[in-house]
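Quick one: structure for this chain?
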Amino acid sequence: MIHIGDTVILKESPSCTYGIHLKMLEPLIGQTLYVKDFRLSGGLEYIQVRTQLGELKGFFPAKFFSILTESGLIIEPQKMTQTEKILKHMEQYGKITPIEAMQEYGIMRLASRISDLKKAGYKIKKGVCTSTNRYGEKVYFAEYSLEE
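Got it. Here's what it folds into:
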């Protein structure tokens, strides 16, 4: 997983992946770049990079980049686990519900992933929310957030 502050390089020309035209990144292939910001959207990881001159570029899928270590070793980032996605979501947005976990990341068992985070030492609080379903009935669901 790529983190803010990592040094990365663009692996190859990602000119037409996911229907996004990224031709503007081609001059950056092989250059040393730095991760300025990180976002999750629709279950995908995106990073914002800056050049050695400090020029900021937009957000791009993290899968296009490899991590460059201080010794010059190139590391392929690992795919985020469901638990890591949930943690990042709560850090970025403050809370998560089961429907958000399912819609954004395809995670069907949010309570199990929350249990995994608790076992790993994270302090997570659970709230109960109410809403109305499509039949006009009142429904209850959990909402999880990191404790301050």
